[in-house]
Amino acid sequence: MSQQKNLFGQVLVALVTPMNAEGEVDWAATEKHIDYVISNGADGVVVTGTTGETSTLTDAEKIKLVEVGKSVSAGRAKIITGGGSNETAHAMQLYKASEKAGADGVMIVTPYYNKPTQAGVLTHFRLIADATDLPVILYDIPGRAGIPIAYETILRAAKHPNIVAIKDAKGDFAQASRVMNETDLLYFSGDDSNVLPHIAIGATGLIGVTANVSPAAYRELIDATNRNDFHHALTVHNSLEPLVRAVMTHVPGTVAAKYILHGLGHIDSPRVRLPLVGPEEAEAARIEADIDKVGAITGLSFENFRPDRNAAAGGALPKVAGTTR
Question: Active site includes 170?
Answer without folding.
Answer: no
